[in-house]
Amino acid sequence: MNSEDFVEALRRHVGDAAVEDMIANLKQPPSRRVPPAERARSDWYNALSPEDAKHVNSVIATAVHEAMFGVLAVLDGARTIDDEGGRFELAYLADQRVILNDPQAIGLHDLLNASS
Asked: Could you tell me the superkingdom of the organism this chain comes from (predicted)?
């Protein structure tokens, strides 16, 4: 696995899945005992026009993308979360060790934007 494969897998298996799960939960919340606030959101969503639901789905997708972008920017060192000046190293271990967030290569957050 290389950086491009990692970002594509993350986008597909985490990002797209989060969007699909959130929309599915809005349409029909799981569980027999749905909390009142979740039931109210579902009722509201299901009452939306198709055009309005499309806009809500787009907002969900944008929020998921922004969260993933932020995490990848932290892993790349483009966004800091401490004052110590350290850096994260993300490695994929299989037959060999591959640094996925190599500071000399294109950033993971940039790859995410390129794949969107």
From this structure: Bacteria
Whole-structure pTM value: 0.90
Is pLDDT above 80 for 115? Answer: no
Write phi, then psi, for 53 (nearest 5 degrees).
Answer: -60, -40
Range of the domain at 66: 3-115
- Compute the mean pLDDT over every residue in the chain, rounded to the nearest whole number: 95
User: Using an 8 Å Cβ cutoff, are 4 and 111 in contact?
Assistant: yes
Residue 90 to residue 100: CA distance in whole angstroms? 6
CA distances from 3 to 48, 57, 93, 102 (A): 39, 28, 13, 9
Report the domain count for the chain. Answer: 1
